[in-house]
Amino acid sequence: MRERQRRRGGRRPPDPFVGGHRTLRAALRPVTEALGARRRLAWLNEAGMRIGTTLDLQDTARELADFTVPELADGCAVDLLDSVLRFQEGDRFRGPGALELRAMAVSQIEGLHLAPDPVGELSVHTADRLGQTCLTSRKPVLLTRMTRADHAAVAPSAEAADLMHRARVHAYLAVPLIARGVLLGLVDFIRTGSRAPFTRADVALAMELASKAALYIDNARLYGREREHVVTLQRALLPRTSPSTPGLDVSSCYVPAADPAAVGGDWFDVVALPSGRTALMVGDVMGRGLAAAATMGRLRTVARTLMALDIAPERLLARLDLAARDLEEDQVATCLCAVHDPYDGTFRIASAGHPPPLLTGPDGTTSFVDVPAGAPLGTGVIPYDPVDCPMPVRGRLTLYTDGLIRSRTAGLDTQLERLRRAVGDGVPEDGTVCRAITERVGGDRADDAIVLVAAARPLGPEGDVFVRSLPPDGTAAGQARAAVREQLEKWGLQDLVDTTELVVSELVGNALRYGNAPGELRLLRHERLSVEVSDTGPDLPQIQHADVSDESGRGLQLINMLCRRWGSCRTPAGKVVWAEQDLPTRGGSVPPVR
């Protein structure tokens, strides 16, 4: 047999059991490697399900650290470049200088007590740190047998290096996090005790995991950047402070949505009107993102300009509807406008498809104001019907956007009732009232929200307002001058008597000549002295260009020179013409008109 095989040139197949265990291991090695590769592939697939479950950067980093312990390492730390977190990407991170990293997540096996950089704090990696070697080279760094010097090159401090030595940390692996060509940071792995050091297969596995996790981290980073940009634009377009308003304390807050795709479009405004009145407005563009925020800014600018002209809420919404239809974005918006008059204690409210406001009495009872809901701005369905709402002293009017009551889990009626209870008795009366309301309503808001609260208060113990009816004849001017002189002396404003008498004489004279006789004289002392005269005439006054030979037409020119500002507005009964002067300084002089 052997001779026949020799003559044929054949060779006997090797016996796997001949030669002992070495031959057996050599025969089973391909099967073992296949099983190991399959297990690593399954582990990486599991990473895709357990890492990046949210678009929160901190959560994503923590999921990466927790996933690797203890399967791959006994300890793991995720650090990101602080410059990248501030969206300053670029190849300059390859430089030899010190790098600033932000600790994002740390995970350790039970019983392991080390001192890595605290999560959230900034650490500086100098040239003697192995982490910087990994970052500058963009390649993994592997140590299979660590010495005390290696511990010092890895740990953030001498105390941390001593803890690593006591814990018998003998293997270290640093892998860079790179996504879309951008260096994000690095991941540190350690092994302790009797566990085998990292192998080249572990390095390849860690690199594959880091490549997959870096995409999730970068998605969360870009998601946060988009949200920051939209929120920054949104906040920049909203008013930063509220003007001082007589008889009204106004508080506001803006709460952006967690989802950047849901941010943008909500706005509010507070405008001080003549005669101590205050205009409040909230609105919501039916859109999201940067486009909605930009549209919101344009609509708010138009609305503020119209409010400064002292236009009634219903007429303001009608003109704002025309402006919304002219926008190229072809977007619509809801809006609610309310004008407060501190003299008669009322709000005049008009709505363009906006949720109704809430009125809270001094005893804490709260109810929704029945405002006719007009069509949203931009739809072309006008007019808008206003409603006059009495506002008791110590009462509150709460305006809001629908993001406050929108929820994924609760119905609209449930959220409205929750809001009604939240606005009721027990809320703080300081500037935190709006924040307290949003916290009380709670829920999983899927949209940004605005809350605007106006609390009525008395005008003042010294009588900051003076009102007197004038006769419809030629004696009105003399009575108005006498009333002005008497009241200003009571207020200690003797320096303004002469100017104010001249102003009120011109206002009453115009009312007699062009306005069917004067109706009422009002004086308001707040940050300025306001004088107004009402009449029933339909035409608003305008400054005329009077020639040298003309005997009339210079009254409003004189008022324009003597007063800080003046204007007129229509009322249901006619119109009101007003003028404002600066109050004297403490030294007794009157500031110049600017």
What does this structure look like?
This protein is α+β, with helices and mostly antiparallel strands and 594 residues long. It folds into four domains: 50 residues, no CATH class; 173 residues, GAF domain (Beta-Lactamase, 2-Layer Sandwich); 217 residues, Phosphatase 2c, domain 1, CATH 3.60.40; 118 residues, 2-Layer Sandwich (Heat Shock Protein 90), CATH 3.30.565.10. Helices cover 35% and strands 24% of the residues. Strands 3-2-1-6-5-4 form a six-stranded antiparallel sheet, sandwiched between helices. A hairpin with a 4-residue loop joins β10 and β11.
Protein topology:
Blueprint: H1 2-8, H2 21-50, H3 57-68, E1 75-81, H4 82-85, E2 99-108, E3 122-125, H5 130-137, E4 141-143, H6 148-154, H7 158-166, E5 169-179, E6 182-192, H8 200-237, E7 248-255, E8 266-272, E9 278-285, H9 289-308, H10 313-325, E10 333-341, E11 346-352, E12 358-360, E13 366-368, E14 387-390, E15 396-400, H11 412-423, H12 433-441, E16 449-456, E17 465-469, H13 476-490, H14 497-514, E18 518-525, E19 528-535, H15 555-562, E20 565-571, E21 574-582
Antiparallel strand pairs: 1-2, 1-6, 2-3, 4-5, 5-6, 7-16, 8-9, 9-10, 10-11, 11-14, 12-13, 12-15, 15-16, 17-18, 18-19, 19-21, 20-21
Helix pairs in contact: 2-8, 3-8, 6-7, 8-9, 9-10, 11-12, 13-14, 14-15
